[in-house]
Design a protein that fits this description.
This protein is mainly alpha-helical and 120 residues long. Helix 5 links the parallel strand 1 and strand 2. The N and C termini lie far apart (76 Å).
Amino acid sequence: MKSIRLCKAFLLLLVSCSFGAVGSETRLSNDLFDIVGKLTPARVASLPYFYFDCGTEDSALIFPFNRELAALMFEKKIPHEFRELPGDHSWGYWDRQVREILKIAADKMRMPPMKRTSRA
């Protein structure tokens, strides 16, 4: 039980360091839901493809927000893929996913074939 509390405390610290303290200007100006919600269709059209996944056993501090973000991105027609997979926020999960993520990145980053022009 103590390790769970330590993990939650660490996660909260990590989130605060990354996104700012709850209610702070930093947190408010970096709120993904707010940023995504305000995107115009023209801006959405210029966005790259996004991929993210989350372990179904991930913390309640992570899992539901990933689902909500995926739903908002779907609503805004942002090109993305969200997967819910067995596992938690751990190196074991990452080790299982890294190859798949690299395949997806390689596929989505591949340049379309160039059109050949005829020479006169």
